[in-house]
Amino acid sequence: MKNKYIATKLNNGAKLYYVKNKINKSTCVDVLFNCGSRCDTIPGLAHFVEHMFFTGTKNLTKEEISKKYSKFISTNAYTNIREICFTGTIFSSELEEYLSTIATLITESTFTQTAVEKERKIINQEIAEYSDKYEEIAHAFNLYNLYQVESFKETSRTVGNIKSIAKITNKDIKKFVKTYFVSNNLEIYITSPLSLNKVKNAINKNLVSKLPQNANLPKLEVQFFDVADNNFYKTKKANIEKTYIRLNLTFKQDINDYVFEQKFLTVLNMINDASLGIDRYLRLKKSLVYYSYFNYWRLKQNGILSFYCNCQKQNVNEIIRTVASFIKTKLKDGFALEELKNNKRLYRHREMCKSPSMNGLIGKLYDYRWYNKIRDNKKLRKIRLNCTLDDCNSTFKNAITDAKISLSLFGDFDKETLPTKKELNELFNFSNIQPTKN
Q1: Residue 262 and residue 266: Cα distance in Å, rounded?
Q2: pTM higher than 0.90 for the full model?
Q3: From CA 48, how far away is CA 33, in angstroms rounded?
Q4: Which residues constitute the domain of residue 88?
Q5: Which of 287, 296, 345, 386 is deepest in the core (most CB within 10 A)?
Q6: What does residue 85 show for φ and ψ, rounded to 5 degrees?
Q7: pLDDT tens track for 225-282
Q8: Rounded Cα distance, 258 and 409, in Å
Q9: Per-residue model confidence as pLDDT tens digits over 321-345
């Protein structure tokens, strides 16, 4: 099934990314403003703003807003490092009503100090809940370690902390909304059976025309930080039993090289293989980890092979060295033919079980959103299925031979015993690894 992606401009500087939904009659729409936690002047401010949109307008109480926004098939709002987003799955006939509801939340919310005080208590409860979910904190902490952003130097997650939340007033909320919730900072991502013209008209009429513009909108770039930076170690300690490790191997990668990516994903699946991969290697042979896996991130300027695990603090050093040894072994000995055959067998099985879905459309649109690339999935499937052992070995070698290493840790660990940056670079120096000749 081919889907036509269209990127176009709306009125007053807003942008639209559209794909025709030929699967069913529903519409999935993300109303996104580029003003996530990277814009925080006080840690947690952006997340606080998101909450405040649902606390009351000139004509609606908090309960009425909740009922009005949740009446559609599925709705939510979220804040992350990049954005604040209203997201919903709706009947296509409800598009104008949905957009109009969001416009009401943005333009008519009163943001009273009384509402701020009430919401502050709710957010403090949320912070307490997050503090009990160490996996979530560790994930957020590792994510922020990828970016050099001033506002994150004293907070470890988007929701901020109790001290920073106590500083936020309704004036801070109003200033933030006035700066960022404007038409020229708006992007809409939508999959819908409605025609492009109908979608554009609905958005312009019910949302864009109701938002002001900001001629002085700040530029909001998020830079991937150089692992040679002085902030190489950004570590936190907490009184918890587990230690969370993330090792990043960052390599230069053309983000439009999808042939490379498909081969690299084949490699990734093999090193995560349940019977032969890294988790079994660390857990069953050495009892070092609770779980572990590699993941591949594709950023706008880099590719990243990331290793994740949680473990006891006394195992941190041995895990780091074992992972380096595992990679060197794969570079030297190569992958086994049986590993590749098993990988293709599983891949064919998954592809046979797949059916067209809204999640598939949304995922492709997300890819287009960040990388501006239209993918031919039929062609990419062939690349995976035709991938040879030589393809896998050469792709793996080319990706990480000159990769730069960075380390993130969260939890209970002894910083003094960690490898130095020089030692890490030596451990993960793969430039001189020569494959064994068959």
Answers
A1: 6
A2: no
A3: 15
A4: 5-210
A5: 296
A6: -135, 135
A7: 333 333 433 444 444 467 778 788 888 876 567 788 889 999 999 998 877 788 888 8
A8: 31
A9: 999 999 999 999 999 898 898 888 8
